[in-house]
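Long-time lurker. I teach an intro course on protein structure, and each term I like to show students one example going from raw sequence to a predicted 3D structure in token notation. This year I'd like something fresh instead of my usual example. Would anyone be willing to generate the tokens for the chain below so I can use it in lecture? Attribution to the forum is fine with me.
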Amino acid sequence: MARPAGRFTGGAVEPSPLLRYIDAMFEVLAFVYENYWRRDSCPEGEPLGRKLSAHGFEVDEIDDALRWLDGLRLATQGVQLRRHPDPPSATAAASAALPRVGVAAWAQSHDAMRVYSTAEQDHLGGECLGFISFLASAGALPPGLREVVIERAMAAPGGPVCLDELKIMMLMVHWSSGTKPDALMLGELRDEGPRRLAH
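-- Reply from a regular --
Happy to contribute to a lecture. Here you go:
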């Protein structure tokens, strides 16, 4: 069965502005985002897997996406996460649950500076780190959500994260937390113009 190439609208497929990346797992995430606008309308686990399979996605990319989404659900519900030692399934495992305080539990002072580990720098790269810093400094990415984005980016399988993949993850973090990206962020996430240079 052919892989979906865009948003489904009454049997016709219209090109999706989100499908501009490489890793197959992100095609699954983009499909979930575009077809389940509200998080509470999205099935979880096996029912979602069956729906994705019916739309032509492969088992391995569905499994990767479901593990990633499960980690996202935990992160946006305020569960502290730690990296899983097995890189192929680096979805992060729950360490100690916080009392369902959500991303507000990761609040930081206004003048705090985020220092990235060597592993984060290697996995995210200059372009993604520059994009995160730009949104954070503009007030479009609060510290709590930024930490969830970074944690989920570190849990993404494969090589270094590209900017298009990071944008999908940012949309999914907002989707899962029930928050709407502000106008600046939404414009940047949908921007198809020249890439922003990291400084």
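Some talking points for your students: The two ends are 44 Å apart (CA to CA). The chain has a mean pLDDT of 74.
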